[in-house]
Each structure stands twice: as C-alpha cells, then as structure tokens.
Amino acid sequence: MWTDPGRPLPGGPQGVPSPDMTTSTPDTGAPRRAEDGERVIETFDPRSGALLGVVPDQDEATVRAAIGTARAAAGSWALLDHRERSRHLLAVRDRMLDRAEELVGLICAETGKQRAEAVSTELMVVCEMIEWCARNVEKVLRPRSVSTGTLAHKKAWVRYEPLGVVGVISPWNYPFTLSMTPVVSALFAGNTVVLKPSEVTPTVGLAIGELFADDVWPGIVQVVTGGGATGEALVRGGVDKVVFTGSVRTGRKVMAAAAESLTPVLLELGGKDPMIVCADADLDRAAKGAVWGAFQNSGQTCMSVERVYVDRSVHDEFVDRVVSGASRIRQDAAGGDIGSMTFAPQVDTVRRHLADATAKGARILLGGEPIDRPGLWFPPTVVVDVDHTMELMTEETFGPVMAIMAVDGPEEAIKLANDSPYGLNSSVWSSDPALADSIANRLRAGNVCINDCLVSYGVPALPFGGVKQSGIGRVHGEEGLREFSQTKSVLASRVQLPREPWWFPVPKGMDNLGIRSLRLRFGTSARSRLRGLRPRS
Ligand code: NAD
Question: Is 165 helix (H, G, I), strand (E, B) or coil?
C-alpha cells in the first residue's frame, strides 16, 4: 500500500528534513505506529531528505497469508511447461520496459543513485538475465540421463522439479536487480515467490509486485513490506527455500532461523573486494577501472573495489591517476556520474572507518567528509598508507571510499587479498595473461575479473556468489537455476529380470563372485584384473 507523498501522513512528520541532513535522513526504514494504530514504515529520498511515502509494516499473520496465496498458485504454475512459463515472463519484461521511466524514477528516488546507473545496473541487468533464462531454462532443467555403471541392466535420470514457494529477502542497494534476480530465477524454475524488499526501498518492491499482477498468472509473486521482523516471519513461515541478500550479520540470523525447520538457504552476503594491480598493468585503464569500481553507486555495491593492492613500483603513479580521475566525478542530484548514498547508518560506518584509519596513520588524499548539502551526499574518497590493522581494510565499508596499499609483488598482494573473512568478487590487473590467470586462480573469491571489475554480475551465464562469509550458493547461470529446483533421481530397469541377483535369499558364493567382479571391473593393473578371473585367490 503505497501512500502518495502528497497525502497527509497518518500521524507523522510531513517529510520535515532532519536537523542534520548532511549525515542522515529521517528514520528511513524504522517502523512506527500511525494515528490509526497501523504500524507503518516511512521512506525518504536520500538526495534531499524529503518524505516519499509510507508502507505498512506487515506482521506475521500477513506474511503467512501471502505464503498461502503463493502456495495456492504454485501448483498451476509448476504444471506449465518451460516454454509457457518463459512466454509469461517475457511478457513481464515487456511490461517492465513499458514502465521503465517510472521504475527508474522510483529506484533513483529511494536509493539516491543516478538515472544512468539505475538503467544499466538495475533494468539492463534484469533484462539480460530474463533473456538468458528464457533461452536456457529448458536445456538446464530438462531431465538428464546418467550412467548406471556396473548395473548395466538399469537406466537412471535426474529430474529438476520446482521447490514450491521461495521466500526472497532483498537489500536496499540494488532494490530492483537484487529482488528481481532471485524472483525471476525462482519463477523460471517453476516456483512461486513471496518477496520482502528492504524497508529502506519498499516502494521498488511494491512496483515489482505490480509487474507480476494477477493477469500474468494469479498469485505467483506476493510482496510483503516491513523490517527485520517481517523478514524473520517469512523465514519461519514455512517456505521451501529462503534466498537472502544482505549483510553477514543478518545472514547469520536468517540461517539460524531457517535451521530450526531445516529450510534451505541461499545467502548472498557482504564483500570487501580486493583489486590487485601488478607492475606491468596498463595503469591508465587500471586507475579508471578502480575509480568506477569503487565509486559507482556511491560504493554501495557488495562487490565494490574496496581494497587496492598496488605494486610498489607503480603505486605513486597509480594513486595520482586515481585521485585525478576521482576528483573529476560529477556528483549532483540533477544528473552527474554518481548520486547520494542511500542509508544514513551506512554514512556513519564510512565515517567510523575513516576515523579509525586516520587515527592509525592513513592519509586521506581526496574527500573524507560529507558534502554540506541536504541529503546523504558523501564524495569519492581516496585513502593511502593503509594496513590490515584498520577497519577500512578488514570490514565492509560499503561507501565511496577506495583504500590503496603498496605491496612488494604478487605474492604479498595475494596473501593480503586472501586475508579477509569475505570472498565475493576480486580483480587482477596485468598485461601478462599467464600472470593474471595464475593470480586469479589463487584468490579465494567466488568471482574474479581480469583487467576489469564488477561486471561479472552483468553476465547472467556466470554463476555469482561468495565463498567464506560472503555467502552460500549461487544465482545466475546453470547453477543459479538449479538452486531453485529440487533434484530428483529416478532409477528404472532397462531389462526387467525376474529378480535382482542381490535379493534374498543371497545366492551361495555371492561374496567370492563379488570380489572377483570388483577386481575385474575396477583393478587398475592387468595383474589385478587377471586375479578376478581366478576362481579363488
Ligand atoms: P541487511 O542485512 O541489513 O538487510 C537485508 C534484508 O534483510 C532487509 O530486507 C531486512 O529487512 C531483512 N532483515 C533484517 N533482519 C532480518 C531477520 N532477522 N530475518 C530476516 N530478514 C531480516 O542488509 P542491507 O543493509 O539491506 O544491505 C547491505 C548489505 O547487503 C551489505 O552487506 C552488502 O554487501 C550486502 N549485499 C550483498 C549482495 C550479494 O549479492 N552478495 C548484494 C547486495 C548487497
């Protein structure tokens, strides 16, 4: 229930800017009780602090009802074949394109990002992903026959069946992409969905619900709005899988709650992505790539370039190029390269990490303080003389900050890059493909880009996900579609015998025959196999 910002709010402030708009918007995402007793959540435009509207903070009963509606729709949706489902989902994409202007406007208003960012990283990525699924779902999820090994009279195959109802919980940084990716994957695999968007960006979630309105197929996507309690109710509500994208801290809670009912989880969590710049890298490209990778979406990307390890021989030149590139980034609401930050507590994290780093000897070469204007504006910030005693190098900052550290060669760079509880994306920059490849192979991360960064998420054929504390499971690609399927193994007889040789009563001499057969079939040397021909050995 999206309330028009022009309408009087139920018992709350009318979007009055907070006294300190440089560092916070009013309580975005914080539930409160309206005059009529309904619990609501207000959302604000982080570029100005203006109130956007209110949505209900929905309770457990509402979540359970939504799961019930999705469950009722699951049977008929699962019965469609892949082609029919693809046809419906391609129609949703058409609807999305028809409403592109409105969606981009909503995304920018709730996140503070720029229009071009919203078009490329939200709409385009989702269009690509739908295209890939429509083209590949049948091939990826069709039954697959497998070898039966020694049991030559048997045949076997693997079926991929829908799970049922998938609960999707999404964050605020890419409210469209990170909701649509799991929602659409689940639907292509024949499931229905209950989506709980972030309380910071709920209206984008509600707009997603409208894209899947009942004329597409009744009930297949339900949207519930609210904060952590609503998310928890979804996890505990009896869904068949939970797909959670968000922080490590909440991911742990989701997994613990899901464990009580052994509900499977797919977790896409935080990152502290390293970039390694070798001595032989194309420095101009590497510096431009770093500037984009660290500052696009104001650094609020799970796979932003947060730590850069640069060979000492090129460190100063790289830093000069980065500072020069970053200082030219245009940042204003009217349309620049990047927009504002989205969530006030995230600005506090950025400031805390910078304070900790400077207290321990780091130097800020650019930015470092919020911009003095209403809204959550924080400039591109470049920090040097950093080390791993600083939070800036060990904890997710999730803001427009690039920390650059000089290293003595690839070995030290790899060691430092892997010295992290996270392992989401990473990048290696070198003009020697063999060197780049060997470094990439040794990075403990779910994704690696060579002479590029971040873009791997834009390739829907590439499975995306983290290792270590960055997550469990994958979205995108074949693995991504199978995450939303139940694997069923089927075995039947190619030739039906009156009885199987191992059934009761066990024939006399079966043990000896068994040992001989094992030697004959699995002995790796001729001697071993020959022993299988002897009656006793
Ligand atoms: P968050 O963990 O605070 O919240 C994410 C979602 O979880 C929200 O919808 C929230 O309402 C819900 N939630 C909160 N408590 C819950 C609970 N107890 N049970 C169930 N749901 C609950 O994360 P955020 O601040 O919205 O997003 C930023 C984080 O997301 C960053 O750490 C970022 O790295 C991560 N992220 C990861 C990926 C990825 O693909 N790996 C992508 C984007 C963002």
Answer: strand
